[in-house]
Amino acid sequence: MDNLNSGQIKFWNSEHGLAWAQYADTVDMMFAELSNAVLDATGITTGDRVLDLGCGNGGTSLLAAERVTAIGNVTAIDISDPMIHRARDRLADANIVNATFILGDAATYPFAENSFDAIVSRLGCMFFDDPDTAFRHFSPSLDIGGRTAFAVWREPRENPWAMAPVSAAREFLEIPPRLGPEEPGPFSFADPDRVRRILSATDWTDTDVTPFDFRIPLGNTLEDALNFCKEMGPLSAPLSTVTGTNRAKAIDAVTSVLEQNTDDDGIVRLDGACWIVTAKAP
Questions:
Q1: Rounded distance, CA 2 to CA 80, Å?
Q2: Distance, CA of 236 to CA of 247 (rounded, Å)
Q3: Which of 51, 76, 125, 199 could anchor a disulfide with 55, C-beta 3.0 to 4.6 Å?
Q4: In angstroms, what CA-CA distances link 122 with 57, 76, 95, 235, 245?
């Protein structure tokens, strides 16, 4: 089991993970609405013991810590060392004492049995190499009556926030082949039937898969949005390998898409589409 998720561990500890840590505040702005939807769906309340899977920079974890108050607690885990470091710094800055951040892989980490009332995840569950093994591994950590809620992306075509810049710049870049529908990655849980199969196979009950649509702000300004596309979004890797005229044309094409989606307040917003998945402990 120690070799599970090795590719993702390498990826999220690379320059990509460093970029997501650097822009933690932008990421939280983008997905704050989604974080609250996940916490609402789980029914997080005072005194709960919460596990946050794939916590990243800790945005959802800190919101959960506020909801459970000082008599509850939050344990958050992620495979990215840069993001866990950023999460710990943010925890200290916020003077929150009821949250703990762990650098580790949720698919193998030795969680104590019956130690949580709820498991949440904002966009962290799609990256397991073997989700059946992962869900079977951490499900005993939920106490009797425990519940989970997690957000995952729907189909790429339903997510212009990610795909519109890619479509605009495609002719100027070498875009890598799209991952298979069940390969670890942002859209590996896009098929709701697959999600239901995984949870059913690992004995979770009362599964519900509900669509969640929202407008995603890519930062506070056009410049913020462009930086996201260049450094963190799906174009970050292709852009990093091209120079000269093609790079300039790609950036111009992306900028045009962002300008077309800039609201009156100066914020670039594009549509996002997720599933909010809820289930109860086996």
A1: 16
A2: 12
A3: 76
A4: 11, 12, 23, 22, 38
- Give the C-alpha separation, 164 to 189, whole Å: 20
User: Can you give the pTM of this predicted structure?
Assistant: 0.94
Model pLDDT for residues 159-205, shown as the tens digit of each residue: 999 999 999 999 999 988 888 889 999 999 999 999 999 999 989 99
For residue 128, the SS3 value is coil
CA 171 to chain centre: 28
Helices (H), the chain: 6-12, 15-22, 24-42, 59-68, 81-94, 131-138, 160-169, 192-201, 222-231, 236-240, 244-260
Please give the Cα distance from 124 to 52 (Å, whole number): 9
AA identity, residue 218: L
- Can you read off the two tokens belonging to residue 175? 């875009």
- For the record, the structure tokens of 88 come out as 């710990």
**Angle, in degrees to the nearest 10, between helices 81-94 and 15-22:** 20
* Rounded CA separation 23/219 (Å): 10
Of 254, 234, 228, the residue nearest 172 (C-alpha): 254
Q: What is the pLDDT of residues 113-145, one digit of tens each?
A: 999 999 999 999 999 999 999 999 999 999 998
- How many residues in total does the chain contain? 282
Nearest to 46 by CA among 62, 66, 61, 60: 66
Q: What CA–CA distances, in Å, run from 97 to 11, 65, 69, 120, 164?
A: 30, 9, 10, 19, 41
